[in-house]
Amino acid sequence: MDTASPHERPEFVAAATRAFLQITEVWQLTDVQRVSLLACALSESTITAWRAAPPPLMDWPTLQRVSLTVSIYEALARTFRRAPELHITWLTMPGDDGPFCGLSPLRFSIEGGADALAALRHYVDAMNGGIGISIGVGRLFVERTAPSPTSPAPCEGQRRAL
Hints:
By secondary structure, the protein is mainly α. It has helices spanning 10-26, 31-38, 44-52, 60-79, 85-92, 105-127, 139-145.
């Protein structure tokens, strides 16, 4: 029985790396954007090296972000199963709904780091009838879902509050 954590298992890390690279190709991300999406201390040259040979190990925070990316992709595939091309349109279109505050969901995730990536994951889960918005994302949604009559517009001045 293998008791190693997923980030210590080469076959798991290799599959996760391939999935991340394929998804971010579909999303037409640059290597700079890939590094930003992972919000970690990787360089563009590391992403290039991953294409040639996936790493044998991956630190846990990076693997979590890769997993979030795969989950977002899968949830969007479910949401837009009848019109798959709309998945990219939705992901890249600026919007004021949810936590996005005028940014596209993809740009929100790239600029907002790990918390924004998790918020997007919960948001797309909720689009599929899940409960992601009501749990797990803390202040990213609280101020945006129930503003008081005296509070400013939900996104006013909050984009950088991630």
